[in-house]
Design goal:
alpha+beta, four-stranded antiparallel beta sheet
């Protein structure tokens, strides 16, 4: 029997598998341990075709603007989530670099092992496709943010998002301007100026890296 809290068992795309099939898939998964942050799992452009499941820890999918040596975080994956499915489905090189945010343990499932599961359970292909479509929608929203909003508005919108859209009284704890800049896709200097404007205009209060929302943020 699969362990009660197996990350593979808890993944919705594998929900239709029988216990013995889940056990077989788990037995083929390779455990990869990364003891610290900033470990690279793979680079954008790599030809690998494996699927990765986050057992513990957290990783970021990032892209780099070589012209400005700037890192942009395009997605984050935590326990029970997976990444690498795009290259599994279309066979193209990796579209982003994956790096650890903290000590992380991953389960790696090779393409050949995954193919054997997909052949017997074509419905998993449908689930994977739904997830890819969801990520495409997310990417479309990110492009819309870049096109329609300046850094000041994008900073306000990100704070609103990270505080759960809860409005005045909500707080964002222990996040740096550098981290915000990577999520927004702008330089740290521009984000710092936007934070200062939000503070001067009475939208937020900052105390020891904690941001408290004082009034409805200018997200439009």
């Amino acid at each position: 029997m699969m362990p009660k809290h197996s990350p593979i068992k808890e993944m919705s795309i594998f929900a239709t598998l029988e216990d013995h099939e889940l056990e077989l898939l788990k037995s083929k998964a390779v455990i990869q341990k990364y003891p610290s942050k900033d470990n690279i799992i793979f680079h954008a452009g790599d030809e690998s075709r494996d699927l990765y499941i986050v057992k513990s820890g957290r990783v970021n999918a990032v892209r780099y603007n070589n012209e400005h040596d700037q890192k942009i975080i395009v997605n984050t994956f935590g326990p029970g989530e997976f990444f690498g499915e795009l290259s599994v489905l279309d066979g193209d090189p990796r579209s982003a670099t994956i790096e650890t945010v903290e000590p992380t343990v991953l389960l790696k499932i090779t393409l050949s092992d995954l193919k054997s599961v997909l052949m017997n359970h074509p419905e998993i292909n449908f689930q994977l496709t739904k997830i890819v479509v969801g990520k495409l929608r997310q990417a479309t929203n990110q492009i819309e943010e870049l096109v329609l909003y300046d850094v000041y508005k994008r900073t306000a919108r990100l704070i609103d998002k990270l505080t759960g859209h809860n409005g005045p009284g909500s707080e964002l704890d222990k996040i740096t301007h550098h981290q915000l800049s990577e999520l927004i896709g702008a330089s740290r200097e521009m984000v710092s100026r936007s934070i200062s404007k939000l503070k001067k205009r009475g939208y937020i209060h900052i105390d020891k890296k904690r941001i408290k929302v004082l009034k409805k943020l200018p997200i439009r």
